[in-house]
Amino acid sequence: MNRLSSAQPSDTLALDRAGEWAKGHPWLQRLLVAITSVSVSTKIMGMVLGLTICLGLAVTLQVRNVMVRTLLAELDHRGFAVASDLSGRAAVLMGRGDSEGLGILLADTMQHHPDTRYAFVLDNQDRALFSAFRDANGVVESGEPVPTEIIAANRIVSPTEPSHVHYYNAEGQIHDFAVPIRDGELGTIRLGLAETRVWEMIADVTEQLLLTTLIVAGVGILAAMLLTWLITRPILDLVTTTERLRQGDLSVRAPHWNDDEIGALSDAFNQMVAELEASQKSIIEKENARTHLLSRLISAQEEERKRIARELHDGVGQALTSILVHIKVLAQQQDPAAQARMAELHQLVDATLTDVRMLSRELRPSSLDDLGLAAALERYVAEFAVRFPHLEVDLHCKLTRRLPPNLATSLYRLIQEAMTNSARHSDATSLSVVVSQRDGYVHTIIEDNGGGFDVESALRAGSSVGLHSMTERSELLNGRLEIESSSDGTTVYVEIPIADAEAAPLESDLSLLETYD
């Protein structure tokens, strides 16, 4: 373990140096990219095919070189042996004066040794006494004249020592052997052997080796394909499983094919997915509980607002109205000075009553419950224009049907929060609110021409309770809220699906607006 640990930094350093060296050679970088970008199956088959071909070529070259050396040496050895045998037998025939027998000996020798191209006997004055040549068709002919260039190609230096030379002619390289007959007393035997058959044998063996290499390469490719399939099958299954996991299917599991490293990876992956599934279930349960609690809190908040608004309207509002009536009665019975004080008190109580009624409507506008969202928004925009006279508000509400109460309340609060934020923080002079209904959704756009703000920073900081409240309300109704802001202004886009409950037509609601107090 220590040796392995100590070797890792040097290996990393070597890889880093190799990477730095590759950066200075763009062609090498392109080659590395091309090699590493191919599939695993292509890499394995390429390695197997490359190794098989390289090994086959190396073996073929090695065998060819050995065969060349061995067969050429054997050719030389055989040439000396045949020439020496001819020299001994020719001495006997020449001693008996058997010229015909000597010619037959030369012809028979060439017939039994197909590598020979010529054989002849020279006297001590280099004159050809007997000769036999093989023509281009392989036929042995005796008594042919010996060319002077062949005679001159190999001359014996010592009468008692044989001589061996190589020279080239139209057929190729010729091995010429000269052996003295009876120590040179009777002349010299000359024998010529060609390398043609040797090279034909070498070519045949080389061809067989190359063919064997191709067959082995084909078998290697089949084996590589099988190996690739065995290796990549679990990997591809793991990729497919990962893709399904990316799409949100936590029930998927990677199959366990073999008890190897990939099998261990599959097991670890399945364990991770199981833990993710358990974690997601826990998160969903907590999120459902949080959503349910938040929904109940918002409902309770709205109910409490409704109760307080009703108490302000019915209790405090009626009490203030009663006080105004009594002040008016008392003012008619007092002297002029008391009447002036009663008038001031009347104005103060009247202003308080107005504030109480406005506070009651802000807590829970009764028009939202009685007349619907469109009427409530028109009433709110009118009051908003009084509170913020510097901001021009343009409202367009195109609802074909009355919305469910929870949806109407959430949209009202969203629009109220967006308009309030725009009036207080954006320095805008114009504000547009558009509410429309189509394709089963309610679309709302609130847009101003203010200075804008950094939406991401505001959401990350968590300092804007209003933004988080708007997000929570839209998510509780499975809606979508987007905020875009720049130096040219801010746009809030809200899209919420409409509940399945049927609602009464909006026209009937608008008719009630005329009698609303």
Write structural notes for this entry.
This protein has 14 helices and 11 strands. It is an alpha+beta fold. 20% of the residues are buried.
Shape: rod-shaped
Helix tally equals 14
What's the pLDDT, averaged over the residues?
79
Number of separate strands:
11
Q: Give the amount of beta strand, in percent.
A: 15-25%
Tell me the helix content. Answer: 55-70%
Q: From the alpha-carbon coordinates, what is the Rg to the nearest angstrom? A: 56 Å
How far do the termini sit from each other? Answer: 88 Å
Secondary-structure content class: alpha+beta
- Note the run of SSEs as H and E: HHHHEEEHEEEHHHHHEHEEHHEEH
Main β-sheet description: 6 strands, antiparallel
List keywords for this structure.
single chain; 517 residues; alpha+beta; six-stranded antiparallel β-sheet; five-stranded mixed β-sheet; 64% helix; rod-shaped; disordered N terminus; disordered C terminus
